[in-house]
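Lab channel / #folding
Pinned by the channel admin:
"Please post every new chain as: sequence first, then the structure tokens as a reply. Keep commentary short and put observations after the output so the thread stays searchable."

First post following the new format, from NK:
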Amino acid sequence: MFIRFVFAVMWLAACVPGLSEPVRGSGDGLTAVLTTDPPVIALGRAKVTLELRDGGQPLDDAEVRVLVRMPSMDMGEREEIARPVAGAPGRYAAPAVFSMAGQYVADVTVKKGGAQRKLQLKLSTGMDTRETGGSGRILPIAVFAALVALVGYTLIRMRQTGQRVELRGLAKPQAIMGIVLLAVALAVAMYAVRNWRRPGAMTPIEAQAMEMATPPPPGVAPVVVAPVDRGPVDQSVTYIGQVAGWVDQDIYPRVQGWIVAMPVYVGTRVRAGDLLARLDTSEIRPVLDERRAAVRSAQEAERMAAAEESRASADLTRAHAAVRAEEASVEVSRAELAAAEADLTDARENLNVAQLMVGEASAALTSAEEEHVYRQAELKRALSLRDRGAVSVQEMERARADASAASASRDQARLRVSQAEARVRSAAARVRSAEAAVAAARQRSTAAQERLAAMRAELAAGRAMVTAAMSRRRMSGAEVAQAGAMLRAASTSERYAEIRATADGVITERLMAPGVLAIPGRAILRMSQTRPVRLQASVSESDLARIRVGAPVEVWRLDAPDRRIKTYVSSVAPLVNSGTRTGLVEAIWRDQEPAFAVGEAVTMRVAVASRASALRVPTAAVREQVGGGASVEGRTVTHYVWVARANGPITVARRVAF
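Reply from TO:
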């Protein structure tokens, strides 16, 4: 802390050597003491007071003129008359103007009793000219008091904390050498500030008060003679703007990884596709191998499912053919059954007919037998009657013929009964055969239907197997697609390990460095697209209302006002910032030359109105005067021109321009 305090004292002492000396001078038997109002000489207007003595006595009733000027630069200063100060013998006051910071001289001319004497006083901005000596006597006392206070405070604190003051340590060569070096540094600094400064240069305190906007002394101004004409004039407003990139883009990684390379730096110009950074992919490669194996496994499963589907489809086709063949067999068996049933019906009908014929033949046989019995009985009676001679031979023969006929009828009836019974037996056999055929046909039909039902069940099972195989194939296809998507995602992650520029631009900020873990969502670089660029200016609310899209804009760099480009307003902000009361006006520059740097400050002159015919005066001929007129940077300024008249000798007249 002590070393810091000493250096602070050295800096203060180096800054104020010019302030510690009163402004005094002598010449031609005169002595003068100069003071100013304000006491510390600042830029701008001031009042200079001179205390003149002749032989130690105040000099009264003299004509005094004062010219305050910079010895190394002619600023158009003029000599001022110093007026006597009432109630102060030997004191004279005159106005002065300090236009720039630096060294000045005051040339004093004194006339009295026909004699003229001159003397010169040296002064500078930042100097304290108070008669008390200003800081010249106060500063050493203050520095000494501060040093004493610091030493006393240090000793008190050392005693309070139980430390011993080792005065013998001050006698060590190292301590003595340090004190000597500090003293030498202080002496060199004070000597350098006093003697090695460039003429007109300022001390640090003088530089703090510097202001370059002070106008020249009143009544002195350069005049430029230039012709005046009429023509189109564009009214414009001028603002300091800046260059913004067409697109300000933050570069983000899409995958997580350690940055192993980043070949770009701030200011590097890149083109679309250029490598910006490369991430470590060692963790991605095993995932890629796993995903490739999963794709192969899924493809093999899909091939097996497709083969199984093909087999199931072939089995289903065969089952369809077998079902159709069995359906035909069922139809045939049904036809055979129908034919057998029809034959059985016919056989049964024939049996019924044969049984009816047996009945009729039996009835005829019974009748024939009864007729035979009757005729035999008649024959016996006829024979008995013949023996008795009761009948004739004819009757006898007729009875014998009737008996023979009855016997023949009986035999025929018996034959017909036998034939009918044989026919019944044949019909019964046919019925039994037909019934057997019907049973066989019914059995064959039932078997065919059972086989058809079984084949239809097999067909349904085949269809289910085909459906299941198709489902497995589709599932395998989905697994192949999923595995392929995961492989593509992993491959994409590997490709994302190389971060490349998406457009032409320039790197404006490097947010990470190689060896740092990059995380998605956290930017690693910031890039601006520099072709085209946006030229932006914050325009005051009053001027913003007069600017239109398409208005001409003239732009130039602050360090190159002679190289100007022309473009047009591309957008005008519809809103005004409530804090600054300004809105953004933007123009676009698409050409490559000149190439503006993003963030560079430029001057923008925007046309707000135009007149087809106006009186045009060169800007160099327009002068400014403080007082009246529009407000400029807290000061009121009036603009005027000098009008030259050539009626005989050239004369000029002042005319307020606006």
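NK: The longest strand covers residues 229-245.
TO: also worth noting, Residues 284-388 form the longest helix (105 residues).
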